[in-house]
Amino acid sequence: MTERREPSIAETAAVLAGVLVLSSTLAVLALLTASGVTRTGPDSYKAEFTRPEWVWAGLLLVVPLFFAARRHPDFKGFFALAALLPQYLQTVAEQDEYAAAGIGHGTSGIGLIWPLMLTPLFIWVVCHGGDQAAKRSVSAT
User: Fold this and answer.
1) How distant is the alpha carbon of residue 74 from its chain centre?
2) Facing residues of 45 across strands?
3) Which residue, among 68, 81, 78, 85, has the nearest Cα to 128 in the 3D structure?
4) 14, 20, 25, 31: CA torsion to nearest 10
5) How far apart, in whole angstroms, are the C-alpha atoms of residue 32 and residue 24?
6) Is the distance from CB of 31 to CB of 93 less than 8 angstroms?
7) Which of 19, 32, 42 has its CA nearest to residue 93?
8) R_g (Cα) of the chain, nearest Å
């Protein structure tokens, strides 16, 4: 079996940028594909400032996070941060749109539930990926 070389800083930076771009793309798509405020009746409106499908697609980030942390275990915290930051910023942008539309008073904190739920999941995934890398390096020696 051939021994794997240590990843370079440039390779790690490229993987980190890739995770950031993936997460940012999902957040931007969630914001851009939403229908906004639409009238559903004479006095009723439907407000959608993010598409739920793209928000839920954020769960798929666990796959690149796991493999990034497995290959680059020393930077696993940065990978989790790169995946989470756009999710939090998307929620802030959504809450700004609700405030600009004059709706959702008192419910702005509810929007943070999703990224707050993703935080322990992403931290667990990168820690598990880093543990796999440690087990792999121990068994190779």
Assistant:
1) 20
2) 39
3) 68
4) -160
5) 12
6) yes
7) 32
8) 19
* Separation between Cα atoms, residue 26 and residue 29, nearest integer Å: 5
Structural tokens at position 78: 């940065």
Compute CA 80 distance to the chain's CA centroid, rounded to the nearest angstrom: 8
Question: Over the stretch 24-80, which tens digit does the pLDDT of each residue have?
Answer: 999 999 999 998 888 888 888 787 888 999 999 999 999 999 999 999 999 999 999
Which residues of 7-140 form beta strands (DSSP E)?
Answer: 36-39, 45-48
Strand partners, 47: 37
Tell me how far apart the alpha carbons of residues 87 and 24 are, in angstroms, rounded to a whole number. 8
Which pair of structure tokens corresponds to residue 9?
């800083």
Q: Is the dihedral of CA 76, 77, 78, 81 positive or negative?
A: positive
Domain locations in the chain?
Answer: 9-140
Own/partner pairs for 50-55, CB < 8 Å, 24+ apart?
Answer: 50/90, 50/94, 54/26, 54/27, 54/29, 54/30, 55/26, 55/30, 55/90, 55/114
pTM: 0.86
